[in-house]
Amino acid sequence: MSTSAAPTLFESIPAIRRLSALAALSPSAVARLRAASAAPRTMRQRREFVTEGEPVHEARIVLSGWACHTHVLRDGRRQVLDFLLPGDLLGVCAQSNPVASASIFAVTEVVTCPAPLPRADDGGLAESYAVSAATSEHYLLRQVTRLGRLNAYERMVDWLMEIHERLALAGLADGGQFSMPLTQELIADTLGLTSVHVNRTLQALRSDGLLTLRSGQVLLPDLCRLEGLIENRPVRVTG
Amino acid sequence: MSTSAAPTLFESIPAIRRLSALAALSPSAVARLRAASAAPRTMRQRREFVTEGEPVHEARIVLSGWACHTHVLRDGRRQVLDFLLPGDLLGVCAQSNPVASASIFAVTEVVTCPAPLPRADDGGLAESYAVSAATSEHYLLRQVTRLGRLNAYERMVDWLMEIHERLALAGLADGGQFSMPLTQELIADTLGLTSVHVNRTLQALRSDGLLTLRSGQVLLPDLCRLEGLIENRPVRVTG
DNA sequence: CGTTCCTTTGAACATAGTCAATAAACGTGG
DNA sequence: CCACGTTTATTGACTATGTTCAAAGGAACG
After folding, report:
1. What does the DSSP assignment read for A52-81?
2. CA–CA separation, B167 vs B159, rounded Å?
3. Could you tell me if A101 and B237 are in contact, meaning their C-beta atoms sit under 8 angstroms apart?
4. What phi and psi, each to the nearest 5 degrees, are found at residue B151?
5. pLDDT tens column, B164-180
6. Residue of higher predicted confidence among B39 and A123
7. In degrees rounded to 5, what are phi and psi of residue A181?
8. Domains of chain A by range and CATH?
């Protein structure tokens, strides 16, 4: 209980910063997260490290890097279902013999650590996991609407805003600036487009003064205008 | 414990039939479900009975009727996120103050009852709920791939197969036959198309001998051929 | 039996995809 | 640090899938 607990705002580990932002964590919960992060595992980039249908062993937390849930069709078409960013959980299941609901692909090198099992004395940890799960579901629903009802330009704006918002929670984005280590082809597989059309859509955003993108660094210079373009959907999963 | 428990296969209440199919339920679990179903609540058709962002009070089970999660954009565009069919759960949340992640719209008249809280002695009930949740997530992921990477014809086939499979679990479909009380406009909002294009896609399926659809009654006369058209994705959420 | 909602059809149009070629960026070994 | 091979980004011309608009035909329902 007498763990040295730095205030949330100065938390230096992005994953812990995110989980603290989702629900107030007691010092002991933060201490257990710190301890868990001392036993990291690294996944090589461009590798699938979880395969759809395989048994799931333990819940883990992303500490750094970008991963994504993907589904690949027989003919090679690929859909990125959602992204896993620092502080996101994977392999959380309530059933007895869970299997992975989708494959997970490491876009960059990805570092994970075990997710401490919530205990009675872990003020807020279980709540943080629950809010994290609800948030993931929210993003998944948003992805459905994005693909079903928005055009290419709107999809790109909506998705960039979502990524910005998510990275900001972990302290990895601020003022519309963040790094995004994705190829246009991966973005295409996320937004249900072709890479050629993603390229043209990015150009349109640039010429509208809404985006700067150079060597994986994104700058959204006019967040207000972007917000005006999309549905105002703040992530609020608790009452 | 000595409840009169008919074998699962002859279970007459579709919702209980589905939950029994997801995980083996003890007689006492079935008894509690039966008891809960004796306190039904009816939602009028064409009504939104859960609103996105509103607090969620209790978990409920759909006993009969069709409902759907929807998201409506400011300009009126609408996306159906997924359907709620007999045996499906709604309002299940692990957090302390959950809010609805999407609005729920009653397509037909919908009857629900409270979902009994799993207890230690409810063999299989918690497991059934967990598998149900995993299955819902599976369908949501499938919906993302459908919208992102399939064309209109493929979307329709994939979705019809999914509905058939889900209704079959509850004993409400068999041999490719089931009733589907949806307008083409609702199907369009589900598949990210216009109702005009849905109409044309249905015609294409009919002229290919894959579909009969008259006054809400669907017949898929050649399930094998349909399965050949889509990804073979049996729902297997447990190892 | 008229009204309303739903389905069906046609013609013109728009958004996004395909194919192909070039340019730029990146990574690697010498 | 440079040369080379590979991946990624960019551009153009053409095509295709799905949308829009409008109107007419059916079915359901009071």
Report:
1. TTSBP---EEEEES-EEEEEE-TTS-EEEE
2. 12
3. yes
4. -85, 180
5. 999 999 999 999 999 99
6. B39
7. -85, 50
8. 2-237 (2.60.120.10)
Could you tell me how many helices (H) and strands (E) chain B has, helices first?
Answer: 7, 11
pLDDT value at A59 more than 70? yes
Note the pLDDT of residue B5.
47
Cβ neighbours, 10 Å, residue A185: 14
Question: Look-up: residue for tokens 């960039």?
Answer: A160
Backbone angles phi, psi at A212, to 5 degrees: -120, 135
Residue found by looking up tokens 């990805």 in the block: A110
- Contact at 8 Å (CB) between A121 and A28? yes
Nucleotide nearest to A183 (CA to C1'): D8
Q: Report percent pLDDT > 70 for chain A.
A: 92
Angle, CA of B214, B219 and B221, to the nearest 5°? 135
pLDDT for A133-167, tens place per residue? 999 999 999 999 999 999 999 999 999 999 999 99
pLDDT tens digits for A96-139? 889 999 999 999 999 999 999 998 777 899 999 999 999 999 99
Please give the pLDDT value at position A174. 92
For B72, name the nearest residue in chain A, comparing CA atoms only: A145
Output the pTM of the full model.
0.94
Task: Copy the structure tokens of residue B159.
Answer: 């979705």
CA distance A139 to A124: 22
Burial environment of residue B228 by CB neighbours within 10 A (0 to 12, 13 to 18, 19 or more): exposed
Residues with CB under 7 A from strand C: A 151-153, 192-194, 196-197, 215-216; B 183-185, 195-196, 199-200, 202-203
Contact B145 A53 (CB under 8 A): no
Question: HSE of B133 in the Cβ direction (CA atoms, 13 Å)?
Answer: 22
Check residue B238 and give its pLDDT.
55
Angle at B191 between CA B186 and CA B194, to 5 degrees: 65
